[in-house]
Amino acid sequence: MLLTRGADMVGELDGRWTIQRAERHLRVGELAGARHECVDGRLVVSPFPPATESIAMASLASAFVPAAEAAGRHVFGRVNLTFSTTCWIQPDVTVLHTLPASDEEERWVPAALCAMAVEFVRRASPPARRGAAPPAVTGRPEGVDRRRRCAEAGVPWFLRVELDRRPQRMTAELFRRTDGGGWAPAARAVGGQRLRVRDPFPIDFAPARLLP
Asked: Given 3.90.25, 3.90.120, 3.30.1050, 3.90.1570, which CATH number is that of 51-210?
């Protein structure tokens, strides 16, 4: 844990974490070593993904930039996407429709500025024997339901990319927020299929091409 007073601080402030306490107790210069998110005052710390997953995230962000910028959108990597003083997440890729207006908003990006959040997850290795349980999808820390938090905050689009060692099994699913506050599937692509949509900006990529 990257804390000024050590890992004990997580327990001491469990359920009472806020933006102000994070700025006071987390060593900002070392945050690149782990992902720090907060759900209802509870700090969730998880390691960043392996290099191959980072490559996929960077590849997708780079593919987004030309069309996103032409449409007036702004592509970022991980930001502190903030829903309240006690709740924030760090999407793997974040697309804003409006740039932060202050230093405070750059550190703690209001969810109201977000056009689309992207989450990468990794499919576990397939079972080795017949009759075994199907492979699980990993990558989301327990208690951090990013898609739910984005829906509740009114973020209009959510993209989920499932990585796999076999590129033809990789999947990308785009969801559009409904008027009722839920998610409706907007587009899906597997392997070499291309996910093509016009909103929230022109998107065109094949999941299998995100990894080398």
From this structure: 3.90.1570
Reported as a single tens digit per residue, the pLDDT across 127-184 is 444 444 444 444 444 558 999 999 999 999 999 999 998 989 999 999 999 999 999 9
pTM here is 0.81
- Beta strands across the sheet bearing 42-47: 42-47, 34-39, 87-89, 81-84, 109-110
- Structural domain spans, the chain: 8-47, 51-210
Q: Could you read off the pLDDT of 74-114 as tens digits, one per residue?
A: 999 999 999 999 999 999 999 999 999 999 999 999 999 99
